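Researcher: Here's a chain I'd like modeled. Treat it as a single chain, no partners, no ligands.
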Amino acid sequence: MASLEQKMIKAELIQRREEGCQLENIEPRINEALETKASDEEFYELYEELIALPVSESSSYIEPSALDEIRAQRPSGPRQLECNLNDDQLYDRIYGGWLGRAAGCALGKPVEGWPKKRIDDYLEEMGIERLVDYIPFHEKKIPEVLKTSTRGNITFMDRDDDMDFPILGLLALERKGVDFTARTMAHIWLEYMPFSTLYTAENVAYRNFVMSLWPPESARFRNPFREWIGAQIRADIFGYVAPGNPDKAAELAFYDGSISHDKNGIYGEMFVASMLAAAFVINDIEEIIAIGLSEIPKNSRLAEAVNDTLAWCREDKNWEVIWGKVYEKYGHYHGVHTINNAALVVMGLMLGADDYERGITATVRAGWDTDCTAATVGSILGVMRGAADLPKKWIQVFNDRLVSAVRNENNNKISDLARRTLVVARELQMKSERKQAVSLVGEASGIWELDSPWGPQVLNLTEGMISWAMEEVDDMKLTSCSFQNPELKFGYGIPKGSWDFEVEFVGTIDGDDLEGVYYPDTIFNGTIKGKRISKGEKKE
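Model: Modeled as a single isolated chain. Structure tokens:
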């Protein structure tokens, strides 16, 4: 049996080839090490050499992973659209997204990972020529654990990571709002998501968090799955909360995606989130897809696959013909890769523009990551149509119930999740920019001198600022601040480009003395003490 190091380097070799690296010198050495069953130490050294390889200068693709660089490579597009939906209308669209996603996910769940032929053979065996309902159950073909997602056996939306992630994103947005960053999402995972429910890139990222590797390092350290579909399936909530604002949806999706993914892995999430934001306003599916493309690098492999699929869909309306062309050009990618599955999403959207059922069923029948692709197609079509206009046979079976692995969110009404999403969407609409500094008045106000492990700090609770003795570090705004005698809490973000480093303080005040700790304590280890030097009043 292959060791973990052997499995990792095999996967990384594929990943580096797909990125356009020249492997002529290292691939033979890796193959020799695999044949001779070299030590884990040798594989580790080869892995480090492999990951350090640059992309070939001859590559025609330009695929950055930082937000500002991604934006510099995207084509022109409408960054914001006018959305005039009232609360009832917006709720119906958001609810439609949640329900549409659930239906697509449940449809694809029993055959997840199956190739097209296996799905075709199964349906033929079950006497189904045209898929017009959920997949039927066969005890010898489908595991018993998936029975709750099969025809006649669905009474709720069963737990699936495709539905866990929108909830996690919602929790993060409820907590931080416009101050949402990559670190926010990482902390939410650690707090609410069991490690055992995560796979591939998400599993690796979680491991990296535990080792105190934070974005963007958490996405890149020993992670050969960083362009797989995991980020793309997390996009939905960021589109739901940014109706008519594809630019903001893509930005939020970037922060989420960058904790576990790189390059096209991130683009997949940005692409889907911006399409969802546009779907609240635009009724033309090709225009929606074009807006999605306008938020990702134009010379990326993902953009190429999307444009190819669009062309094939314009040439032929037969899903099997389109699938054949997708498979011929992009079938070499792993079954849970972003690029090939995104192509199937585009196919499902084009075919389902006027027919929700056709959209999700054609997507599932095409195979690969069926629950993920159909969930995305169902979500976008659901936002376009709204809950009231979705076919009842696909959504009523859930009885408005969604089961989740997310801590404290194990059993939700889907309608409640939609209402919570609406609240966040309206809050974000009101605050298009980062919040102003948060300050305090009263017993805890004034200016404090803190003795931190990183040197002296001046905490101005009256003005909502914190400054450092180090000259190279600028003053920072407090993003959160509260005092419930004697407990004081405050937080701020240390700018790290697209990946702000979030710091939280929890302590107590006793007169003019302050004592507490910073989190994460792996960085700010030890007790923090401080003295109030002024009770100055807030300036007008």
